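Possible regression after last week's pipeline update?

I re-ran a chain I had predicted before the update to compare outputs. Posting the input and the new output here so someone can diff against the archived version. Not blocking, just want to make sure nothing changed silently.
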Amino acid sequence: MHSLAREVGKAKRMDTGIAQYPTEKLYNELKKRHQHYDIYDPEANFYDRFIDETQSTAVTALQEEIDALNLEIAQLQADLLKRRRMIYYPYFRGRQFDLRALTQFAATDYADIVPVIEPVKDLNALPKTIAAFTTANRPLAIIQNPQVGHYQYQAQQRYPINAVLDAVNIVPAFVLTPLLPPETLAANPRALIIVQHFDDLRLFIQRGWLPETAPLLAPPEARTRQLLQGRQFGHIFDHFPFPEHSADFENMTDSFYADDITFAHQYGETGFSDFLTLGHTYSEQGHPSRAVTLHLTYLKDAQVRVRHFVSDQHADFSHPKEKFFEALDKAVEWISDQPEENLTTTTTRLIALQTTHKFPGMGILKQLMIEHHLAIMSRYLHLRKNG
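New output (post-update):
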């Protein structure tokens, strides 16, 4: 019986192997065998093989944990970007029909849009527009140091706006230039800053003149984004394709306009700005056009595109009324096939103009195009926020 018990014990030890021995005992036994270590053939040594395998297992486990954490971080960042409030800053030069369109827009239902006005003329419409936004309690940014037009050179305005700029809904804004006094920004730490040139931005950051709390709109350049890391900023860009002559739109009836929110999310931005379908180039008097062209932005696949409708006649500058109806007929035909999301008060007005055969004048047409673009951009923001 004793012999049988001994054999059973051996069988059990063979089955469990060295797992039955404590770690300290195994370590002491390994130390006894150090004389067998072959420095010329490391792969033959159990010591090296044991350490390599242990380290490899540990590294693999750590890498898997790092990969899982990185995935979680990416998902959290994506969720944060979706929840972050994205602001659209449409940029206007304060011309007559721009201001009339804005006054109409102030009374509509919209969110996350802060128009920016750079005053260029001493017009009665300017204080009226500001008052309309104040009455509606809507934010409106007014540039205090305009860079185009002659407004800033007038010693005294016929229609001053200083009294209406103190309202709580009015956001002071400044174009960043070397001539902008640093103390002006220090006194307005939450003012909206418009960056035009990289060198100006670098100067103000290096000198410590740019408040950390000020939101900025800057050109979409990689070097600019590097300077603005950690700050609240967005991009400003002229999306509208302006050919040399309006008649050239005849060869480009439809074009991509923008998908600013996707771009802004990619670079951690909090807003974006454009010059609508007006373009960033400023002309004091404007210029005549041989063709009448209507530009209607619209939504497709959660992006913004623009449709161009050009008159058939464009040999000279005469007959603008006839040219308008040529372009209008094409626009109304397109409008009739559009889904509800692309229909606005402007499209309804255009259909009515065709029905009554009434030419409203080029200024009113410009106003209608602006109102339409603002309505489409408001829907774009809503679609991407809730999509």
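Follow-up from reviewer: compared with the archived run. Residues 190 and 333 are 47 Å apart (CA to CA). Marking as no regression found.
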